[in-house]
Structure formats: C-alpha cells, structure tokens
Design brief:
With 385 residues, the chain is α/β, with parallel strands linked by helices. Strands 1, 10, 11, 12, 13, 14, 15 and 16 form an 8-stranded mixed beta sheet that branches. It has an 8-stranded parallel beta barrel with strand order 2-3-4-5-6-7-8-9, surrounded by 6 helices. Strand 13 and strand 14 form a beta hairpin. Helix 2 packs across helix 3. The protein is elongated.
C-alpha cells in the first residue's frame, strides 16, 4: 500500500479516533527540518517565512524560535509576529521589525500604512501611486521595488497581478528617491511551486541589470529579495530543492557583490510537507458507474487549495482491497464541492472508514471557510524532536 508506514498509519488511526475528524495534524519537527534544510543550502539568504501559506500561530511560534524572519501581507499577520516581540525594549523591537519583517504585498491600504509608520518597516511597491501613498502615510518605510519576471510553468503564476515592468524600474526608483523615500532594494517572485529553474535564473539576470544600473546612478540599493516558489516534493517528479540551491548560489556569486543582503520568502516549502489530514467517509454511492466517497472535509475547508492553489490532492486508505478510479467529494450541498474525480481507492471502503492526505500543510486551512455551517478540521500539533 502506498503512503505512510504501518506504524505511522496506526498512529494516525489512533489520533483520529481520539480527537475526531477531520483532523489536521501539524508536525513541527518537520517544519524545523524544512527551515534548517533551507538555511543550510542557501547560506547567504535570510529566510522570511511567508505567513500566508499557513498562518497558524503555533507555526509562527516554532519558526520564531528557530530564528526565522517573516513575510507578512497585512496588519493582522504583522501582529501575529508582534506577539513575540511586544515585550522587547523599544530600540530592540524596532530593530527586529526592520531586520526581520517585510510587508511583501505591493498594495497596502492607507490605514495599514498609518499603523505601521512608527515601526519604520520594510515594504514592497510596484507603481507610482503606491509610492505617493507610502510617502503620505508611511514615509518612515524602507522600500523594495518588486519586478515583473517570467513565471512560466509555476503552479501559481504571479506576474499578471504583481510587479513593475523592468523597463519602468529605474524611473520608479527615481520617483521614490525624489520624494525623499529610501529605496533599499529589488524583489521578484517566479510563481509558487516553480519547477522551471530557468525562471529563477532569468529573474536574477533582470534584477542584476537593474541593480547595477541603479547603483551606478547613485542609488545605494543593498537588498535583493528572491521571493518564494521553492519546489516541494509533492511527488517523485518534482525537482529537488538542493539542485535549485546550487543554481542560486552560483548565480548570487556571479551577479551580485558580497555586501548586499539576499532575502527569500518561502511559504509552501516550510509547511507543505508538515501536515497530514485524516478524513472520514460519511457517505458512499455509485453514480454513473463510479463510486463516490463523500467525506467530512472538502474544497470549502482543508481542500481549499484545490480551488485557490491548483493543488492535486492525494488520498490514501487504511484498508486494502481491489482498487478502481473513484471520486472523493466534500460534505456541503454545493455540487462544486468535488475534491477529486479520479482517485485510485479500494472499492470496499464503507461509511465510517478513514482516508488520509499527505503534504497538505500549505494553502489549505489558511483559506478554509465555514460555508454551509461546517466547521473546519480540528488541528493537532506534534512536536517530536
């Protein structure tokens, strides 16, 4: 049987019976391992966890204790980090925010900018209107210009919504500087779950040209933010992160001086492999010749990544038996709530049996809803060292 070992499956069953289902099990040992893998393979890179991937407070606590920095998209995400530094002395607190938090959402509302002004935050931008808004409401900020770069083949593409055209980059840097704002550096994002490493190399080439041109013209840029997109091993076909790291390290040395800071914003990479979901079969029917297993979780809940993240879910059974192509659908009354129509599962599964799904830590419970009045999965944290 594919999936986890017998001992691990037994433990999942025990936990499901003890705590009920759907049960979302977060493995903090794996989160720590992922963080350390990232740091050891990219020693020049400061790691800013992208909170949007999974904003569970316990994940933030684990990564804070590991020494991670954080990429936030909103004031509420910022306050999740602030929880751990609110007791710091004023100068220490401001230094932490400046050095370890970036607002990577290129468009920020005025109220958020007013709230964070006193902290002198690092923020991204990609257009002239945002420059003027930052000047008016958060002139203390350090700015990072986000560039539009190739994202072909990434699971979630970004360039259609974010990023300044490279040809407009210097003019935007000049505009910000003319208004008295400090442009600290450049950023890009090659798209989430990027399996095309050429996207990274092309983006670094584009960024390098703009970086060196701006420096020659007197703008002291000192930050390069390479965003996220680092591949997760969802299956055996996914390229290895270690191979990408070799490419990136070589390009850093070739294209940029040693005196700059290099940032990255991994989200999926940190948490995707750190969670397993156990669901219960609540209904079974044969429709047009295909078995439909109705489970107590769906696309409006932990499987929201099927809709928002273009994720292909996996299902494993605890029972063995003759297998055929089945459908797995969610509990709501919406016909849209189909998790997958092509899952190889045993045909002898019954109501009350369990399924489990691996690598569901990213973009899952982060975007869950309470549609139809159904509660989301119970979350159980494990911290085995």
């Amino acid at each position: 049987m594919a999936g986890k070992s017998g001992a691990i499956r037994k433990n999942l069953l025990t936990m499901a019976r003890q705590y009920g289902t759907p049960l979302f099990i977060l493995d903090h040992k794996r989160i720590r391992e992922n963080y350390r893998t990232f740091k050891s393979n990219l020693p020049r890179v400061q790691c800013y966890y992208a909170v949007k991937a999974n904003s569970n407070q316990e994940i933030i606590k684990t990564l804070f204790n590991e020494g991670s920095s954080f990429d936030v998209a909103s004031y509420n995400e910022f306050m999740q980090i602030y929880e751990y530094i609110k007791h710091f002395e004023k100068d220490e607190k401001h230094l932490y925010i400046w050095d370890k938090i970036i607002f990577s959402n290129t468009i920020k509302d005025r109220d958020t900018l007013r709230k964070i002004k006193r902290y002198r935050p690092l923020v991204t931008f990609d257009n002239g209107d945002e420059i003027r808004k930052i000047k008016q409401h958060c002139s203390s900020a350090g700015l990072v210009l986000r560039l539009k770069v190739p994202d072909i083949g990434s699971q979630v593409e970004m360039s259609s919504k974010f990023g300044a055209e490279p040809g407009e980059a210097y003019e935007l840097i000049r505009q910000a500087s003319d208004l008295g704002l400090d442009v600290e550096g450049l950023s890009f994002h090659v798209g989430s779950q990027c399996i095309n490493f050429d996207n990274f190399t092309a983006a670094l080439e584009i960024t390098s040209e703009i970086f060196h041109d701006a420096r020659k013209k007197g703008h002291r840029l000192n930050i390069i933010d390479i965003g996220g997109g680092f591949p997760v091993p969802y299956d055996s076909q996914a390229p290895r992160f270690e191979k990408l790291a070799e490419v990136l390290n070589a390009e850093f040395d070739r294209l940029f001086p040693d005196d700059i800071e290099i940032l990255a914003e991994p989200g999926r990479f940190m948490v995707a492999t750190a969670a397993t979901l156990v669901t219960e079969i609540i209904g079974k029917a044969r429709r047009d010749g295909k078995i439909f297993y109705h489970i107590n979780d769906g696309v409006y809940h932990s499987f929201s990544g099927v809709v928002f993240d273009h994720w292909m879910p996996n299902f494993n059974s605890f029972k063995q038996g003759k297998r055929e192509v089945c459908a797995v659908v969610g509990p709501t009354c919406d016909s849209f709530d189909k998790v997958s129509l092509s899952v190889q599962l045993p045909v002898n599964l019954e109501i009350g049996d369990y399924l489990y799904t691996e690598n569901i830590g990213a973009y899952s419970i982060a975007s869950t809803t309470r549609f139809n009045g159904f509660d989301g999965a119970k979350i159980k944290h494990t911290h085995n060292r």
